Amino acid sequence: xxxxxxxxxxxxxxxxxxxxxxxxxxxxxxxxxxxxxxxxxxxxxxxxxxxxxxxxxxxxxxxxxxxxxxxxxxxxxxxxxxxxxxxxxxxxxxxxxxxxxxxxxxxxxxxxxxxxxxxxxxxxxxxxxxxxxxxxxxxxxxxxxxxxxxxxxxxxxxxxxxxxxxxxxxxxxx
Length: 174
What we know:
A hairpin with a 2-residue loop joins strand 1 (71-75) and strand 2. The mean pLDDT is 88. Helix 2 (9-64) crosses helix 3. Helix content is 47%, strand content 26%. It has 174 residues and is α+β, with helices and mostly antiparallel strands. The longest helix has 56 residues, at 9-64. The strands form two sheets. Strands 1, 2, 3, 6, 7, 8 and 9 form a seven-stranded antiparallel beta sheet that branches. A two-stranded antiparallel sheet has the order 4-5. The protein has one domain. It contains four helices and nine strands, in the order H-H-E-E-E-E-E-E-E-E-H-H-E.
């Protein structure tokens, strides 16, 4: 009987090792599920910042130029904010596509004004406690705040010279 146990010891070790692999995968899966919920919430928060800027701009534009309002088109993970027609048309293409890969955040966001060949890249980073995610401008690591979005809108839709200077560091060169 002792010989049978020793002959099957390798199989018992294999079974134990495989059980540990499955447990680690389950642990990672549970952690990834929580991380994916955080990524989804962060994506919604970025869209909320963009929608808020559109709402504020349209409120001001309504009084000054009611026929010249920002329009938003949105799809899965992407969108476009536009204003004007013809040669005066301006747009800001938005791609937000972070996801969880192998238990880590991958991807991010890109804002691409049609008046430039350059784009602004956002990344999701964990806060110092490691418990939540926040958006940063990839080139400067500056947190993405309502003011950052407003400055990008002023640059894209308003040809604002001060905004042009402020966003210069945001652009990632091609």
